# Entry
Amino acid sequence: MYIPELETIFTAEDTGGMIKGQRIDIYMDTHQQAKEFGVKKVTVHILHQENASI
# Structure
């Protein structure tokens, strides 16, 4: 997925049941980076959806 606000492409790796609704969990290199980023509303573009079951 691409997040324009971060100008970064991310790979969804953890698709477990703890994330509900319109939320995603983004990997950060350090705990401090995650704390500084916090919780935000961002735009997400799905670039490729492999093995999707809809």
In short: The chain has a mean pLDDT of 82. The beta strands are 2-3, 8-9. The first strand starts at residue 2 and ends at 3. The CA atoms of residues 2 and 45 lie 5 Å apart.
